[in-house]
User: Fold this.
Amino acid sequence: MTPKEERECFDKIWQNLTSGQKVKPSAHPFGYVLDRQPCSGKKGGISYCSGGKFVCVDGTISKSKKICGR
Assistant:
């Protein structure tokens, strides 16, 4: 995904979340940073499971020893 496509995608998601007041702005926002998770970081997160392995959003197979199952 190019930076432009990423921004367009984010804008669509943000518009969907903020329309109808699903999400409200906060004076003191906070967030969580998850690391040491399958497909974390530049991999983009988990896309789906295949044969007990995590398939990352970028299309690669995670090297995690954890078993993926839904």
